[in-house]
Amino acid sequence: MKENQTFLTEFILTGFSISPNLHIFLFVLFLLVYIITVMGNLLIIVVIGSDRTLHIPMYLFLFVLSLSESCYSLVIIPKMLLDLLAKSKTISFAGCAAQMFFFLGLGGTNCFILTIMGFDRYLAICKPLHYPVLMNTQVILWLVAFSWVAGFLISVAEIILIFRLPFCDSNIINHFFCHMRTVVRLACTDESTTEVVVSAISIFGLSGSFLFIILTYVFILSTIFRIPSTDGWQKAFSTCASHLIVVIMHYGFAAIVYLRPNSPGTLDNDTLISIPYTIITPLLSPVIFTLRNKEIKFAVRKVISKNTHSPKL
């Protein structure tokens, strides 16, 4: 056991290991990214919520994903922006646990929603005659509820494993948020077992959901290749393209963060490597879904046109 064990009340976030002169630049850059992210996701939420023609499973799942992505970025970016301008980059013990809880829970929820979206495309393309029965309103609600509950149950398990550990005098987190692996390394006891278990949970959740998505696309592609007309191919591919791009981006960035082998120098690069997963993914998801979907683009134009030509009082 490490010496000088104490009860910590707060952690210190080191943030980005760059010149303080660049903090203002990063603040402006990440603030713009955050504003675009929130506006993009809110636009999708408003458009889908207000247009009844989009009240079908595919877009209702996109509605839930945009809501989850908005909350996901809210957990990390505002605190990071404040720390870029602050001299004292501290976070309370409870605040660190809460941030990690919501970050892991919402990240897990995003994975499960993307998995369900893949399953929805499988039913729509491979089981078109049974689709209205198999994907009814009750099933949609159950699937959405499952995504949120499963995501946060995994988060609860990981939080309990991490914060039951005793922490020592060292309270410096070499990151811009309470990163799971970085916090575990601050424990007084031998944390290797806990780190292995927590990493195994994350790997199982990521790889399991990703393999399920891959399996659904194997069936989807086998069905598409049996379609005789080129127009049928294009229509089927167009409904899947946006989802597939977001899945590759989401799981690709997540794999870089969570599936890397642990080594003494690994944590030094965690800060930069976490930027795509925590900041870039929530930014690009609404952009990809909007730009590559004709129905969404048409609904966005309709909302903008309606607000532009509405009578002023």
Question: Would you kindly provide a written description of the structure presented here, covering whatever features stand out?
Answer:
The termini are far apart. The chain is globular, with a radius of gyration of 22 Å. The protein is built from ten helices and three strands, in the order βααβαααβααααα. The protein has a three-stranded mixed beta sheet with strand order 2-1-3. The chain is an all-alpha fold and 313 residues long. Residues 1-5 have low confidence and may be disordered. The longest helix is centred in the middle third of the chain and has 34 residues, at 93-126. α2 (57-85) packs antiparallel against α3 (93-126) and α3 runs antiparallel to α5 (137-163).
How many DSSP E strands?
Answer: 3
Strand order, biggest sheet? 2-1-3
- What characterizes the major β-sheet? 3 strands, mixed
Contiguous runs where pLDDT drops below 50 for at least 5 residues:
1-5
Distance between the termini: 71 Å
* Structural class designation: mainly alpha
Q: Which percent bin holds the helix content?
A: over 70%
Number of helices: 10
Cα radius of gyration in angstroms? 22 Å
Short descriptors:
single chain, 313 residues, mainly alpha, 3-stranded mixed sheet, globular, disordered N terminus, Olfact_rcpt, G protein-coupled receptor activity
Short structural summary:
Helices cover 72% and strands 3% of the residues. It is built from ten helices and three strands; from the N terminus they run E-H-H-E-H-H-H-E-H-H-H-H-H.
Question: Helices, strands, pairings?
Answer:
Layout: E1 10-13, H1 23-50, H2 57-85, E2 90-92, H3 93-126, H4 131-134, H5 137-163, E3 172-173, H6 180-184, H7 192-224, H8 230-258, H9 270-291, H10 294-308
Parallel strand pairs: 1-3
Antiparallel strand pairs: 1-2
InterPro entries: GPCR_Rhodpsn, GPCR_Rhodpsn_7TM, Olfact_rcpt
Pfam family, one: 7tm_4
GO cellular component, one term: plasma membrane
